[in-house]
Design goal:
Shape: globular
Number of strands: 16
Helix content: 25-40%
Order of helices and strands: HEEEEHHHEEHHEEEHEEHEEEEEH
Number of helices: 9
Distance between the termini: 23 Å
Strand order of the largest sheet: 3-2-1-16-15-14-13-12
CATH superfamily: DD-peptidase/beta-lactamase superfamily
CATH class: Alpha Beta
Strand content: 15-25%
Radius of gyration: 19 Å
Number of domains: 1
CATH architecture: 3-Layer(aba) Sandwich
Structural class: alpha+beta
Length: about 325
């Protein structure tokens, strides 16, 4: 039975202590003040840990279940969801439509041949809105140029900003109260001392609690079905979380769904652990957060940090994030 968020059973298995220790040790290594870890396995929360604190108006706030972290680039999975929904609702005709068919103020020379598929899978080849690194679909480069175009596209086809689209189709049906874009500092937000102009989904100011971030992954794991209710059409989820990278993409590059990293086989620069099974998918943010889904074993794993700045000497991010996923699987199956 697919459980609603408030019906999860909290078991707090000690067998996840190795994973939690790893998350908390990395917190200190990368100079974070706050961290959270939450694991769902077979429809139950099996591990949940909160560590550290953050400052709010010169007061120290301890991290807890209602603490909301900035998930940074993990917001791309919400953008991918909105595009998948638009395709399902026939607001977009095809994943292989050219972006220039929808946005009329682009540099046509730069975006020639760039499709929605390319934008969603980081294979568009754009270095900026007017400069091209490589022909679309032939290589892979991670940046926000394509994502910014998709955000504008969502606003145009839904006639509403991303935040309102997500509120209508996901946040309200799922009863999310700790997920949303915030432009002002609040007591339960782990703030990064940044300034934001708006809260409509155009900026990297999506704040989410560890539980609701995990429930976002759980919604995907169950393909939109929660407690017997199909909250989201399963086709929307399936499309967003399967490999959508261009067929001619060089074998060395990672594979993506709609912004999610997707495991088809271990790859050198993929950020998914080498032991994770085919079909696993993950979304990440520069603050250190991650939401990992392993469908074959019905696992969702979330880690949250408030990292700012560059990685310290001696810290290997790629090794760390792969190790996180490998430890999640090993602990779950032990």
């Amino acid at each position: 039975m697919m459980l609603a968020q408030n019906e999860w059973i909290h078991t707090n298995h000690a067998k996840y202590s190795v994973l939690i220790d790893h998350v908390n040790q990395v917190k200190d290594q990368i100079s974070c003040s706050a961290a959270a870890t939450l694991i769902i396995h077979n429809d139950a929360i099996v591990a949940e840990n909160y560590a550290g604190s953050y400052e709010y108006h010169s007061r120290t706030q301890l991290v807890g279940p209602s603490t909301r972290f900035n998930v940074a680039s993990a917001r791309k999975s919400y953008i991918g969801f909105a595009i998948s929904l638009a395709l399902y609702q026939n607001k977009l005709s095809s994943l292989d439509d050219y972006i220039s068919d929808y946005l009329d103020d682009l540099n046509l020379a730069a975006v020639e041949g760039v499709t929605l598929r390319h934008l969603l899978t980081h294979t568009h080849g754009l270095q900026s809105s007017h400069e091209k690194l490589f022909p679309p679909g032939t290589s892979w480069s991670y940046n926000n140029i394509g994502i910014d175009m998709l955000i504008r596209l969502i606003h145009k086809i839904f006639e509403a900003p991303l935040s309102k689209v997500m509120k209508r189709y996901v946040f309200e049906p799922c009863h999310f109260v700790e997920t949303g874009w915030c432009k002002n500092r609040e007591e339960n937000l782990v703030w990064l001392n940044e300034e934001y102009a708006a809260d409509e989904g155009e900026e990297a100011n999506l704040f989410v609690s560890a539980r609701e971030f995990a429930f976002w992954g759980y919604l995907h794991l169950n393909r939109g079905l929660i407690n017997g209710r199909q909250i989201v059409p399963k086709e929307v989820i399936e499309q967003a979380t399967t490999n959508q990278s261009p067929a001619r993409l060089d074998d060395n590059w990672p594979r993506n769904g709609f912004a999610w990293w997707v495991q088809d086989k271990p790859r050198a620069i993929s950020e998914i652990g080498n032991t994770l099974t085919n079909g696993s998918y993950q979304i990440l943010g520069k603050t250190g957060c991650a939401c990992l889904v392993i469908p074959e074993h019905r696992i969702v794993a979330v880690r949250m940090y408030n990292q700012v700045g560059a990685n310290p000497p001696g810290y290997d991010y790629l090794e760390d994030i792969k190790s996180f996923g490998d430890k999640v699987l090993a602990c779950s199956l032990s």
